[in-house]
Specification:
The complex is a heterohexamer, with 3 copies of chain A (244 residues) and 3 copies of chain B (269 residues).
Chain A: E1 29-33, E2 41-47, E3 50-61, E4 74-81, H1 96-109, E5 121-131, H2 136-150, E6 160-167, E7 170-173, H3 177-182, E8 185-192, E9 197-207, H4 209-238
Parallel strand pairs in A: 4-5
Antiparallel strand pairs in A: 1-2, 2-3, 3-5, 6-7, 6-8, 8-9
Helix pairs in contact in A: 1-2, 2-4
Chain B: H1 9-20, E1 36-40, E2 48-54, E3 57-68, E4 79-86, H2 101-117, E5 126-128, E6 132-144, H3 149-163, E7 165-172, E8 175-184, E9 192-199, E10 202-205, H4 209-214, E11 217-223, E12 229-235, H5 242-264
Parallel strand pairs in B: 4-6
Antiparallel strand pairs in B: 1-2, 2-3, 3-6, 5-6, 7-8, 9-10, 9-11, 11-12
Helix pairs in contact in B: 2-3
The chains are: A alpha+beta (244), B alpha+beta (269).
Chain lengths: 244, 269, 244, 269, 244, 269
């Protein structure tokens, strides 16, 4: 009931998933901070087969002026897929999906960014999906948060994102593309690890209240794994001597 | 909708003060919905229609059912598309022109709540596999705005679906050919959208526009007839704790039962 | 000559039309003023099977400023069909037809609205066609005029609209959808009943000069019928005790 | 066009004063047209073309004729589409970009005048019923503006139609196939557009741009060769009385005869 | 190698081209200045079967203001094909080709126009292709330059344009439509005849370095022929008594 | 790109002074290119991809190969379309939204350089004549801007083409059907774009962004493997003399040989 058809074995008898991972294991994640020359801050993430670049400009003047806010800075986010990032070439015009994702990512970052320090200005976050493989919004958010830190924007906390989900009636961490297509549910989560706040939460697919709570729990575990990698990426740029 | 640019600080203070005492500005309990009034068949020329009043928010959903080409990768399923539009007469701040991000989110969340529940059995809407399927368009138009359009649009769309009369087509030499007779849309479950706002540390259900303007964050949880969650969307600039989310899940499941009864009552016996 | 093909009997031997009406009889019309909470003024009309909602905002500030006029207020009108209002689902983008109708309706209302009293402001009139059945522009105009009055906008006169037309070589009042499709001519008319001015006039279809004059004459009769219903709708809202 | 944002009050006063004496600013009688000059074949590569000068207003209409898919509900008829565009070199206030409401109205009124007269016999433009028909596109471009584009565009379009040479197609294995030879477009009547302005209580024909700027209202009445009215459009912020409309109807029918002779003269004997 | 397929004889044994011209002979060119009433300056050119109208407005105010330049005037050019100008009816929306051509024409005219004399203003040049027959951008530029002069805009030099090209392995002047479709290369050139500067240069098609230099040389010859006709057109308008 | 609205007068003076001494601001010789770094296969899910760093300008080109309908007049040829886009993270002045004229020119010049060279043999990309052909889309996205995107995009696109793996289709009952196996794209030559700027009376190759901002004019000359010129575009507000153009032609041919070796090296032996 409520699942999606599939012939694929999403979870074998040993609890191993179609790409060899355990249920609570995220895909291979690598993050690099400061990868662009012009951007004030930037980060590149490989999250499984997702390849995503984030760049930040700001705080800077807002044009047209009437879009600025005298009381606080504003955050603007653009999640964008390049034409060759998906199997069928993507039309360059922004899709309704991209517009919605840009909005939920912005709302996930806003609690963390101290925009009130920069009234009348904007901070622009650009996320470019170079290759997509399921879970792009979480991975893009992870890169964006590192890029914001790399740009020196003061933040109350890091924001770390990872999806939870459900395949073969089992709650799992970090849904990949096949699992998203053939699985039962996908729940992207963003989390501020020190303030303990969930700032992005979506769900497509059917689950019980119990599974819902379990998804949030395992998702936060994933976010915490990501958080360590985000810190590591920043440390590798700013304190390379301390890394080995 | 977050289409408002000014927020009445006094109103927020008043709302907050009341919430400290466990009260809401319009006297409701924290998890209490405003009155829900549903009229179906209000646009008789459409294949289905419903007007929903949720407090002073008012929405009409009209359904058009027509043959369509299937999407290339799902030739064995019909098409369901749900939209939402804020008519400019619904509120002084609404602008004409292409939908802004808030309206796009509204439409997509309402659509997903219904789609992910599998309310309409799309496998029964195939005229000829890979060639021709039935397309069901549920278009919501907002006539008056008083907060919580997510639920108002969802109830309008599901009511219109429940009461729609679908024509029948068979595939002939010149493509789909209209047949005699009408039948209800094939449905499997009844999704119910429950939207809650977080104001300070309080969780309230069905925020009206005053509450909407001063909320910290919101969450819309859609549940199906089996009492499972089938779609969810967090919004707003704030965050939720794990405990708050657990509370929201419970409120959603509890509230949905009463609302589902109201929605189900639109179906003629 | 000049007519359109049809198998339908548009006018029988007794002078009765396809929907049972006499040649000078309008469809059933009901108007209700003040149906919306947020709008400054509003009205709902059922004109035959047309179902139309009109809402008015203003006088209010104009953005961008350069579109305002220091000498007078401006009137802005939008005639809009919702997607499910017509047999084949309508694309949401405004059509050229909608843009033209919005313009002729605005020009029909402008002589009545005392815009000069509100320099630099705009009065916005929104007409939403919920269900269309021929003659939408007249019915929308009728609702818009009531909504303007309901909004308290000072007016020199009411504006009342009704179409005349020609079927089976006979001049008739209030062309319905079948008559418009299969008939010979359709002539929408808007009229200020006290100032005796015709402020909207269009014609599609072929008629002699004599028929043209007769159409205007019968059309004005229809407008006067509508006028009484418009007054009644306002009275029912503002002086309910006097109605019985 | 009402594309002007400033109006010369002095000019209006002068025009009004003269009209009181029954005179117009350029010396014409109230119902007198400016000179009409028509050159056809000015764009030889188009299937038909005409340049019309109505006073100092100048328009070129070019006609393209090509096979097309019929509209879904009228498979037994060809397609006729007439457009109008104000080129930005025609007047300092014209802007590039999508057409504004005035230009849309212009194009639609010119199109309807010709369409409703049934000038082109579209039933003769069918290559294969429901599959392939002939499409006739009459595109007007305005080169110089001096008022009354409704008539200038209408005369350009009808002149171009009268002198157009249509290719022939037959439906073969790969759809419509071009045949040898050209023939005139099948026409049944010759519609003539007559535009009048109301200034104060005066009705004048063929308003020039000065008159256009200060008119109270306008009306365009199109008549066919049989002396019947086939399309009409009132415009402008003012109204007409019943008597004024009767006068306009008469002027339209009277003026149209002389203009029809001028238009008819473009057809080679 | 590098040529395009054709059955047409583009150059016969006597060095005569498909339209009867010699290799260094341009098509018939006629230019008339001052053909529009409203435009500040205008010109009409027939260049072979190309029929093109150019109109100029300015120097005039710039809206929106932030697009103006306090140090100099700006030149804006629009190259535009009317719907019936080409074999298959052209969509009215500006194509990417039209946008690029508008840009290269503007850059070809800018060195000649003394924009620095009119800070904060714009000069607008509109070119309308009424009938196209190969080489429209050069012909449009020729008309635009005359229209600028006709508008009284001070200029350092005339700008004269003509294409060179290559057919049947031979360098030729003024490529016509057939030669452009079937030939080997097309090289539009714009030239300031007194300042001796090439201000537009493009090339599609394959040629050796030697042919490249020869194309430029023969192209400049063509530009000089055009230059005489441009001067003649202006003289015919402004000093008609001296023409005979 | 000429997306900059301010120009540092001091920087221009410095650049000019150095050029008088035959030197460039970053120490290069006048006709010397910055370092060119090419990584291919950087987007494995695309059919081909390459990241090019030309100095501090950085571009990724991804290639998508898919069946398409042929253009109506060239049914015996496949389709090649090359685009370019400046991502907003590439420079603070880049705006989101439809491409401006500079970006459109960039894309069209890069496309023409490859197209006019006949690099890809489009006659080999026909699945079924007039029905179905192979479409090759080469989309460039600019990640970081430091001048001379014409060459950076061209090198990215040609590198991606050289290393692309094309699926095969055969035409069956339901149109093109994917077959087993991959093969390289059929290529005939290797076009090399060489862009030069004129600053004062000096011609320099591969201008960086400082040089780009203060140049008088620029020229991009593309040459093929045979040492012939196959496409050219002049840009900028200034002009060139005949002698300067002759110099540019020579520089283009000379520089292209070394760059062609670098590009050719991406092909696995």
């Amino acid at each position: 009931m409520g699942g999606r058809d599939t012939d694929m074995v999403l979870l074998d008898e040993n609890g191993i998933r179609c790409d060899g991972r355990k249920v609570d294991e995220p895909r291979r994640i690598t993050i690099k901070a400061g990868v662009l020359k012009n951007a004030n801050g930037s980060a590149y993430i490989e999250f499984g087969d997702n390849k995503i670049l984030a760049g930040v400009y700001g705080p800077r003047d807002v044009h047209p002026k009437h879009m600025s806010n005298a009381d606080t800075g504003i955050l603007r986010c653009r999640y964008h897929m390049v034409p060759f990032s998906v199997s069928e070439r993507k039309n360059p015009a922004p899709s309704r999906r991209e517009i919605e994702i840009s909005k939920v990512i912005r709302e996930a970052l806003e609690p963390a960014v101290m925009l009130e320090r920069f009234p009348r200005t904007a901070v622009d976050v650009y996320m470019e999906i170079l290759q997509a493989d399921g879970g792009t919004r979480c991975a893009a958010l992870d890169a964006a948060a590192v890029a914001l830190a790399d740009a020196g924007i003061p933040m109350r906390d890091m924001v770390s994102a990872c999806a939870a989900g459900k395949v073969a009636d089992t709650v799992i961490l970090d849904v990949n593309n096949e699992e998203d297509q053939a699985g039962q549910a996908d729940m992207p989560i963003a989390y501020m690890p020190n303030l303990n706040q969930i700032t992005l939460l979506q769900l497509d697919g059917i689950m019980s209240l119990e599974e819902y709570n379990k998804c949030i729990e395992i998702g936060i575990k994933g976010c915490k794994i990501v958080y360590e990698l985000q810190k590591k990426a920043l440390a590798e740029k700013y304190f390379p001597e301390e890394q080995s | 909708m977050t289409v408002f640019t000014t927020m009445d600080e006094l109103k927020r203070n008043r709302i907050m003060d009341l919430l400290q005492e466990g009260k809401r500005i319009d006297g409701r309990a924290l998890d209490e919905y405003r009155s829900i009034t549903i009229d179906t068949g209000v646009v008789p020329k459409a294949n289905g229609s419903a007007r929903v009043r949720l407090g002073d928010s008012e929405v009409i959903c009209g359904i058009k059912i027509q043959p369509d080409r299937p999407f290339s990768d799902v030739g064995e399923k019909g098409i369901f598309i749900c939209t939402a539009e804020l008519l400019p007469l619904s509120h002084p701040t609404v602008e004409t022109g292409p939908p802004n991000e808030s309206v796009i989110e509204l439409a997509r969340v309402v659509d997903r709540g219904i789609r992910e529940s599998h309310m309409i059995d799309l496998t029964q809407l195939v005229i000829k596999k890979d060639e021709s399927v039935v397309g069901v368009f549920a278009d919501n138009v907002v006539l008056d705005y008083d907060g919580n359009l997510f639920d108002a649009c969802s109830y309008a769309a599901t009511s219109a679906i429940l009461t729609a009369q679908m024509p029948r087509w068979e595939y002939g030499d010149n493509g789909p050919e209209l047949q005699e007779g009408l039948e209800p849309l094939p449905t499997t479950t009844l999704p119910v959208s429950v939207t809650m706002a977080k104001i300070g540390s309080h969780i309230i259900a069905d925020p009206n526009s005053d509450e909407w303007d001063c909320m910290d964050a919101r969450i819309t949880i859609t549940t199906n007839s089996e009492g499972n969650i089938c779609a969810l969307q967090k919004g707003g600039k704030g965050g939720f704790t794990v405990d708050e989310l657990a509370t929201c899940g419970e409120i959603a499941i509890n509230s949905s039962n009463k609302i589902r009864d109201i929605l189900q009552a639109v179906v003629p016996k």
